[in-house]
Amino acid sequence: MLHLTIEFSGGAELLFNNVKKHQIELPDNRKWTIKDLLAWIKDNLLKQKPELFIQDETIRPGILILVNDSDWDLLGNLTYELNDNDNITFISTLHGG
């Protein structure tokens, strides 16, 4: 199994029943990418308003993704292959006024 820690903050946690941290396991019978993980999150963790999190099979603009505290843009974005014990953080940078 592939063990991951998924964290949501900056308001993104509101879409996940206010649960900020999730420990998940994914089958390791294939390579998992961030793109695969986003689809899995949408189907298994997201509780409301998917349009505020996912847009056209990627993350909605305004949500920063960190992989082990590094910006996912530096790691290949959607094509980054997940590793056991990765920590994936989603931080919403959009705030109402």
From TrEMBL:
Gene3D superfamilies: 3.10.20.30. Keywords: Cytoplasm, Isopeptide bond, tRNA processing, Ubl conjugation pathway. The keyword Cytoplasm applies. The modification 1-thioglycine is found at G97. It holds the Pfam family Urm1. It is found in: Cytoplasm. PANTHER family: RURM1 PROTEIN. This is Ubiquitin-related modifier 1 homolog. It comes from Brachionus plicatilis. The lineage of its organism: Eukaryota, Metazoa, Spiralia, Gnathifera, Rotifera.
